[in-house]
Amino acid sequence: MNLLLAVKVFALALLLTNHVRLLPAPFLPFVPALDRLPPLLFQRTLQAAFLISAVALLFNRHLRLSALVLGASILLGVVASKAYYGNNKTFCGLVLFLIGLYQPGQQPWLLRYQLVIAYLGAGLNKLLDPDWRSGVFFEHWAAHRLHQPVYITLAGWLPPMLFAKAISWMTIGRSWV
After folding, report:
1. Is 130 found in the same domain as 163?
2. 119 within a domain of the structure (yes/no)
3. pLDDT in tens, 143-168
């Protein structure tokens, strides 16, 4: 997938999910100085920058600048509010920002490094979590939360937790490959 299509998909998904309404006013910010800004003005400015840049991306206007501004608005929202923070928002903001930094004709190394770091971090997080290593997390998620009939059937044919542990370790291993 080329970067232009990727950035348009991000922008379209953000607009269709009405993500703009989630952008916060400063609340328990990671950077305390943001608490001094007028909350409503901060939030409306962030929302305006978000909307203008997302629409500009969809209409092929100032693509790199629009990707930078859209990514920066999400990242600024993350920095401004601990309640808004989420790995998915941070990742999305960083990807958009890094696509905005991309120089046509060159390899997108920064974006590739971001993906490598994200996958390594996810794998390390799972590796260090005893519930992932033992299969407890996957068992609870697949059997008790999702009530996944295929998983429940296959797991029933094996000793307890063997299938969950195998899938957990395959997931951990896949994060590192």
Report:
1. yes
2. no
3. 999 999 999 999 999 999 999 999 99
